[in-house]
Amino acid sequence: MTNRTQQVAYITSVGTATPPNKFDQLRIAEFMANALHLDEAGQRRLRALYRSTRIQQRYSVLADYGQQRGGFTFFPNSPDLEPFPTVSHRMQLYREHAVPLAEKAIRDCLRQRQVPPQSITHLITVSCTGMYAPGPDIELIERLGLRTSTNRIAINFMGCYGAFNGMKAAAAIVRADPDAKVLVVCTELCTIHFQKKNEEDHLLANALFADGSAAILVEGEREPGVPALELAQFACEVLPDGQDDMAWHISDFGFEMRLTSRVPDVLKTGIHTVLERLVEAQGISRDEVKLYAIHPGGRRILEVIEQVLGICACDNAPAYEVLREYGNMSSVTILFVLKKLWESNRKADGSWIFSSAFGPGLTAETALLRVVGA
Fold first, then answer.
1. Is residue 265 part of a domain?
2. Whose CA is closest to 207, among 5, 17, 18, 36?
3. Which of 120, 168, 224, 301 is most buried, most CB within 10 Å of its CB?
4. 195-220 per-position pLDDT tens digit
5. Is 356 a member of any domain?
6. Structural domain of 264
7. How many domains is the chain built from?
8. Is beta strand 228-238 parallel, antiparallel or unpaired with respect to 151-156?
9. What value does the CA radius of gyration of the chain take, rounded to a whole number of Å?
């Protein structure tokens, strides 16, 4: 039985947004092959890598990925893309595009719940692909018409699991104050950090990451008869053996992702243990968990999670759908997965959901959620 001695936190709405530029995965591979000056054999290997991702399309704030050299507006139109965009140049682009994209996701979220912006008490922004101050939180207050007294928290540079830290903070707020209405918005512009390097981790990162934004509303009460997702338990696990296999560093020419092929194997050691901790803390059995919302960090990661948890690809369908339709949008991605899962299980009252995402550390952040109010 669920412990009801503490205040409950609910996700009552999820909104999503993507930038206008949508590209076929193999069209991006063509851009990358030209940018890296690959020979014919290298181009074949690159196309094979891009096909193996199971991604069909991705979104970007940059139109350049669909242009021939000569028509670029961000990257130089020189043969070697020099002078290559600096961090300063990329942060200018982040500042131009991140807030409008976040606003779009938030308005989608509030519209579904029919909540006026003035009722929001807290705003939590999550991002690892750009930073500046005064930041997106201040701009969003102005653009959305939130109260100037809105409490703000910024969660930065935590990678693909950042949304879980946003959810944990929101849940703690509404458990302390049931009248609070907390907006959590994750916004990532991964594609502005393209690196023209031929190493394996750069090739893989260029093949996976995309841009997007997602917002959730977390409340201490839900409207009777309206489905919601109860945020029941959280747990995290740091897997030090993978510390060098996933990292996110600021270089002179953008943020550089380190992502090796060892990541799926490292994850094998921690996921089952952390799930057992979650169900034990909630007082339910492992068999009661029927639904899964897993961050699609890549095809191989999803396959390893299925193997460890003893589930099939059909159980992971929302993750594969998001990977296919959007790619990996870092912290944003898990909220897209939760939205898809929730939309197809709104009548599954009482069903338990195990959700997890992974990032630098190597860190696994997890949550146990429940569909309620159907």
1. yes
2. 36
3. 120
4. 898 888 889 889 999 999 999 999 99
5. yes
6. 232-372
7. 1
8. unpaired
9. 20
